[in-house]
Amino acid sequence: MSKWSLSGLLASLHQDIELQLSIARKAFAHPGTKGDATEGVWLKLLQQYLPQRYQATSAHVVDSTGAFSDQGSSQKTENKAR
Fold this sequence. Notes:
The chain contains two helices and two strands, in the order ααββ. It is of the alpha+beta class.
């Protein structure tokens, strides 16, 4: 039986994310679709590893003047209802 290693676990996670991002970048030529695909990789990671108290979603950002962001962004929010 091999020893458990946090650095080994994180290295494996890094390799997995790197592979998923590489596949998403190669699979799509359209910049918007490519961005959506790579954002999906990060959202999946955050949703899997963030405590349930937090939530990762895709959203448009609105600034203090009411202007919307040109494209969706990953958002991390705290769910205070729990």
